């Protein structure tokens, strides 16, 4: 009988060792998962931190720029300011239509624009987009006033993220392809 007890004890011992190995393996998996989650959250927090650094509160926008903005767009709502590339950029709504403008430090308007329907694109621009990007569709269109001229910023659906600026006669002015999927510059 003692041999049976010893064998049983050995079996329990092997079972315990086997369970200990499985628990150790499981702990390693859980640790790896938590480490990965922590790293991902850190990367996300860094992106969010950068976005917050770009955003400005109205009180941080120079008075000359605020005065210029309020004079030109007195009915603006949902106003959001950002600082990019040394320019003060503002996105806002008027009559439920998305608008934007950019200002230099003195309050001079560098560019401004508004979202328009695809059907409002000049025929020359629509033809150019279809010819150059036949496999893509138009996602958003903005009419842009800059340096006394009218341009059209076209955002295409799909990957890579692509924004193209066209003159009113359909000539591509600036290609804004973004294969990495990061934030793109706006005019």
- Beta-strand percent range: 25-35%
Order of helices and strands: HEHEEEEHEEEE
Please identify the structural class as seen in this structure: alpha+beta
CATH topology of the largest domain: Nuclear Transport Factor 2, Chain: A
Number of domain units = 3
From the spread of the alpha carbons, the general shape counts as flat
If strands are numbered along the chain, what order do they take across the biggest sheet? Answer: 1-2-3-4-5-6-7-8-9
The low-confidence parts are 46-51, 178-187
What gap, in angstroms, lies between the N and C termini? Answer: 89 Å
Helix content: 25-40%
Biggest pleated-sheet summary:
9 strands, antiparallel
Number of helical regions: 3
Assembly classification:
single chain
CATH architecture name of the largest domain? Roll
Number of strands: 9
Q: What is the radius of gyration computed over CA atoms, rounded to a whole number of angstroms?
A: 29 Å
Just give the CATH class of the largest domain: Alpha Beta
The average pLDDT value, as a whole number, equals: 80
